[in-house]
Specification:
The chain contains 13 helices and 21 strands. By secondary structure, it is an alpha/beta fold. α12 packs across α13.
Length: 457
């Protein structure tokens, strides 16, 4: 059994609330008063200014987080008593994990305080033991838009809203309660949640606004210091994740059927070998059926989809709005334009190529992560021939009878050299029952070739 041995002169990481010294235990206050070096944000330093030794050295960490470990090391090397002032619980989206990563754990003595989230829950009597804590204290990326990519500061919250019944949100000046309310409205969740906003906790101007609707909060303004509580008033959706009926998707009219059919879609998704955090490309998205079903299968991943046909793009956007996923980005354009801006994929589905198939296959295989899969659907002999010829030209290897790889590819300039890629072709033809008088007959669907290429991990 391991035991933790503390350093005789650790750096004390002390949680402080907005009532300053009144929030500290006698032991924590004694450490603050005796500190030779005090590190904290400008506001926290000001709260405890009256308690600090006049000779103590103050370091304002605002905008200088990377310097904090060096300040701590220097203080300890000089055998000085060092204190880092944090907000609330330093281990809850605070500075303590960062310091533990850059300093040995034994060099720290953490004295936590209440989290502002706990205080906010106590003010309105909301149990928080099963709530999800989310921080949106990120670089400002502007208002949330449906289909925003993972780099957006509100992306994590958008995903959590789909899965959780209660959320406690640490906000920022930019990602404010009204912006969070507008996110709920943009995602069609305005009727599913209520909000509470706790402002200026433990200060004379404290205000707690409980049971706000997103519609109300979206047009309000709030104090800079606040936290947000969200709880569901409608149950979490439990949608089917795999094998959806074709009727679940809007399709082009009057030419019904311009969609990857259920049976082909199921096999194609299976061959993509998706994980819950996969990054997926859907090229030639059509109605969006493959990419949207993939988004449900990858709740911690993201799907990037592109469709060149304006009418189909509009239908895919309609399906996205109806599907209840926030990890899906749809672009109106023609591949390969725009692919350079996407992160390297774990899985790629090509349902249409716009006449750029061979070049597209080369680009995809160059970007595909090790262990990743490329799956392509074709209904014409010409596209099948183009795809297999492109794979052969890239020195990819057909799988042998044992399904094992034997040849490498990618030795042209700018590609990932000596990466083994195997490929195979599956022909799939389904028949569905149709009524005829008082009986049923089998009506065949068009045959589809599924070409799969896999980069060996």
């Amino acid at each position: 059994m391991d035991t933790v041995t503390k350093d005789p002169n650790p750096c004390r990481v002390i949680g402080v609330l907005d009532d300053g010294a009144a929030s500290l235990s006698p032991a924590a206050l004694a450490h603050v008063r005796s500190a030779d070096v005090v590190i904290g944000g400008a506001r926290t330093l000001a709260l405890l200014e009256a308690e600090l030794k006049s000779a103590s050295v103050r370091h304002d960490l605002t905008g200088r987080l990377k310097q904090v470990p060096d300040w701590v090391r220097a203080a300890r090397a000089d055998h000085l008593h060092c204190v880092v002032l944090a907000t609330g619980d330093p281990l809850c989206h605070g500075i303590a994990p960062y310091l533990a990563q850059h300093l040995c754990v034994q060099a720290l003595d953490i004295l936590p305080n209440l989290s502002t989230l706990q205080l906010a829950c106590a003010r309105i009597g909301l149990a928080w033991h099963d709530a999800r804590i989310v921080s949106v204290h990120a670089k400002d990326a502007g208002e949330w838009r449906r289909g925003a990519a993972p780099g957006h500061g509100l992306y994590g919250l958008a995903q959590a809203l789909r899965a959780e019944a209660r959320l406690l949100v640490l906000t920022s000046p930019d990602n404010s309660p009204d912006r969070i309310a507008r996110l709920l409205l943009a995602e069609g969740l305005g009727e599913e949640f209520l909000m509470a906003v706790a402002e200026n906790l433990l200060q004379p101007e404290e205000r707690v606004l409980a049971e706000l609707t997103p519609q109300e909060a979206a047009g309000m303004r709030f104090a800079a210091l606040n936290v947000v509580l969200l709880w569901r008033v409608a149950p979490v959706a439990r949608p089917v994740r795999f094998g959806l009926a074709d009727s679940a998707f809007a399709q082009r009219q009057p030419e019904k059927g311009l969609i990857t059919k259920q049976e082909v879609r199921a096999v194609s998704l299976a061959r993509l070998q998706l994980r819950d955090d996969s990054v997926v490309w859907d090229i030639g998205a059509g109605s969006g059926s493959v990419g949207l079903e993939a988004a449900r299968l990858c709740p911690r991943g993201h799907v990037f989809a592109i469709e060149k046909n304006e009418a189909d793009h509009a239908i895919a956007a309609h399906n996205h709005a109806a599907f209840g996923v926030s990890n899906y980005t749809l672009i109106h354009g023609k591949a390969p334009d725009g692919l350079d801006a996407w992160p390297d994929p774990d899985a790629v589905f090509i349902g249409g190529s716009g006449g750029e198939l061979a070049a597209l296959i080369a680009q995809v295989l160059d970007r595909l992560r090790p262990g990743g899969n490329l799956v392509m659907n074709f209904v014409t002999l010409e596209n099948l021939a183009t795809a297999t010829a492109a794979l052969q030209a890239l020195k990819a290897s057909p799988e042998n009878e044992n399904g094992s790889a034997c040849v490498s590819w990618g030795q042209t300039p700018g590609t990932r050299a000596q990466q083994e890629v195997t490929w195979d072709v599956l022909q799939l033809q389904a028949a569905r029952s149709k009524p005829i008088l008082h009986m049923h007959r089998m009506a065949a669907e068009n045959p589809v070739w599924i070409v799969c290429a896999r980069r060996v991990a």
